């Protein structure tokens, strides 16, 4: 993930930043409480959000080394993916999908009538949200208020949808 000359990398131990296209890396994870199993990184203005697999969502500032956990109301601390859609941050988790409009201070569960609550993949554009689960792909045109299953034609009886990409024409 990159913004304003920063490049970010999440690993199973630390989160790093680089200001020279990866020639050098600085560990952003210092101290006792930091995301150490980072599965997803999203940048919003000067804030860096890290989705940790086991501890939830943490936020830091560009160039910072301290993190604050922002998990109030989050439906699971096992984060598969984060996505930013205007001012709304979405988290795909082991217990469905959650969103926040106040930088993680409070999360709201947006679980559709899922046949599986594991949401592995997530992509957003404008008010459109697509999620991939253990068995289906779901689509919302209103930031997760309503959901439609769009799995028709996918092979297999219950495919795991680990990755989605949306390019404004095709999913």
List the helices and strands and how they pair.
Blueprint: E1 2-3, E2 6-10, E3 15-18, E4 26-27, E5 38-44, E6 47-52, E7 56-61, E8 68-69, E9 79-85, E10 88-93, E11 96-100, E12 108-109, E13 119-125, E14 128-133, E15 137-140, E16 148-149
Antiparallel strand pairs: 1-2, 2-3, 3-4, 5-6, 6-7, 7-8, 9-10, 10-11, 11-12, 13-14, 14-15, 15-16
Could you explain the architecture of this structure?
The chain is mainly β. The chain contains no helices and 16 strands. The protein has strands at residues 2-3, 6-10, 15-18, 26-27, 38-44, 47-52, 56-61, 68-69, 79-85, 88-93, 96-100, 108-109, 119-125, 128-133, 137-140, 148-149. A hairpin with a 2-residue loop joins strand 9 (79-85) and strand 10. It is globular, with a radius of gyration of 16 Å.
Please give the radius of gyration in angstroms.
16 Å
Helix and strand element order: EEEEEEEEEEEEEEEE
Count of alpha and pi helical runs: 0
Can you tell me the residue ranges where pLDDT is under 50 for at least 5 consecutive residues?
none
Percentage of residues in strands:
35-45%
Tell me the structural class.
Answer: mainly beta
Helical fraction: under 10%
Strand order of the largest sheet: 1-2-3-4
Average of per-residue pLDDT values: 84
Summarize the biggest pleated sheet: 4 strands, antiparallel
Shape assignment? globular
Q: Tell me how many strands there are.
A: 16
Between the first and last Cα atoms, what is the distance in angstroms?
21 Å
